[in-house]
Amino acid sequence: MSLFHRRPKLPPELRPPLEADERVLAWAFVGEPGQQVLVATNRGLWQPDGRRLGWHEIQKAEWSGRELRITPAEVAQERAGYAVTVDAPIVGFLLLEPGELPDQVRTRVTRSVAYTSHHPLPPNGGVRVVGRRISGVDGLTWSVRYDARTAVDADPVVDVTDQLVEAAREAAAPPS
Asked: How much of the chain exceeds pLDDT 70, in percent?
């Protein structure tokens, strides 16, 4: 008898349409074992509806011990060189036999973040600047997420945000 219990392979009929260089890292049935699965790959998280969220598209992931709750990022506005994101509706998945899936999700979302910093903005707001890695893409993708009550579209806030993103790019750039 082996000391290591390996989860059976993902049934071929439940396998999502992976890209050529995409590989399955972990998977779990959603709810009672059956026809719906959640699949973590090196590129992102395949949901039961057949859509994949890239690791860089997940703002937050929480594991309760039974439910995996994902907060996707939604692009509210594209600016020169970065996106303004907001939280999309939370999606929950009941995983009765989660296996390694919650750990893989946490690890991959965390690994996608290469740079993060929070900055207060007057009069009573703030912004988080984030540089994230995207599997298969060189360099970082930049986004910002404003705190509640921040005047997102006010010219001074946009100007300061542009400067903060540029400073973050310089700080995260590899040495020449």
From this structure: 96
Gyration radius (Cα) of the chain, Å: 19
Distance CA 30, CA 108 (A): 20
The pLDDT of residue 7 is 62
Q: Helices (H), strands (E): how many in the chain?
A: 2, 11
Q: What is the DSSP letter of 153?
A: T
As beta bridge partners, residue 104 has none
How is the beta sheet containing 24-29 ordered, strand by strand?
24-29, 37-41, 44-46, 52-54
> Cα-flanking dihedrals φ and ψ of residue 17, to 5°?
-75, 85
According to the model, what pLDDT value does residue 91 have?
A: 97
Sign of CA dihedral 150, 151, 156, 159: positive
User: Rounded CA gap, 135 and 42, in Å?
Assistant: 7
**Is residue 92 within 8 Å of 69, Cβ to Cβ?**
yes
Structure tokens at 47: 């949901």
The structure tokens listed for 44 are: 């992102």
Residue 14 and residue 94: Cα distance in Å, rounded? 17
